[in-house]
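Late entry, adenosine-5'-triphosphate complex.
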Amino acid sequence: MRTPGMAVFKHENVEDFYELGEVLGSGQFAIVKRCTEKSTGNAYAAKFIKKRLSRVSRRGVKKEEIEREVGILQQLQHPNIVELHDVYENRTDVVLILELVSGGELFDFLAQKESLSEEEATQFIKQVLDGVQHLHSKKIAHFDLKPENIMLLDNNATLPRIKLIDFGLAHKIQDGADFKNIFGTPEFVAPEIVNYEPLGLEADMWSIGVITYILLSGASPFLGDTKQETLANISAVDYKFDEEFFSNTSELAKNFIRQLLEKDTRKRMTIQDALNHPWIKPVNPRQALVKRLSVINLENFKRQYARRRWKLSFRIVALCNHLTRIMKNQKSQKLPEQDGRDCESDQEEETVKRRPRTRKRSSTS
Ligand code: ATP
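Prediction complete; structure with ligand written out below:
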């Protein structure tokens, strides 16, 4: 029942202790439902993770991977990171009882705004950095930082609180860097991931660079028409700040992004560097004024974000159809296989349209 060093996964029926409510979201092998603890009346989110039921199967998540996610969540305690309350297990699922994060995704919240200065934008980025600093101080890399995993605790406060979620790919980094066959969402992964090089905390910093680029402009720096093109763009660090999208962006903000989208992991900003960067922490009144006067390209952000949402919905419908087919096949004893957790499905269905490409470079490193 218990792996050494791991939490006890309770084997009682979760529904004896929690009233389950509506579906809040879903992932490749997980479904998340609102729930209420019967003894306290407190609201939580129950993440049902499908277990991989046999060694040969590629469906579901391996038990040791679920234990890793749980083990990592147990080590974390920070206002900007989702909290783990309890863990249950039955034959088919492990159920994580998580802090309820009810404010939706940060990007959805921003897409509803009429205007947004860089100063306001950095108040959110700073919270992301604070959460990541907590992770990195414990030598934990998230490895799947992307807009969908940056949520808001609630969206009523003047400055809503950021919560980082989904630690399914997170790893403890031993001895600085480690070879790992980890793959997040193509658009956001670092060149060392694309090139199967040793991975460390630096990979998260790259993703923060991509997220900031999108937040400020609506455009996505490396997104190509195919997954292969996206990965080639990342490996070649082939991006630029098109005037069309960045005409109102401060040099300070571009410098912040440049220092994160740095191929050489030794030259890339660390979390501490990022927190001390003058765009986040101005060192003189002029820098503070620049941030107040510069605005993010909300018009393009909204346009591209609507496309992104539409494509994600399309992907969920496609996934449902796929699952229906699997269930039908299971009934007739034919079991088609599905990709494991570490590899993201094809990118066709994903994300923001990248800026129009005008040139090709083989490498900038
Ligand atoms: P993926 O396959 O994308 O890696 P996953 O299977 O690991 O996802 P999560 O990303 O953790 O699952 O959760 C899926 C969705 O459920 C999230 O995108 C979010 O909408 C919702 N969700 C997850 N955790 C919470 C929470 N604590 N509170 C509210 N909603 C949540």
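The chain has a mean pLDDT of 85. Will revisit in the morning.
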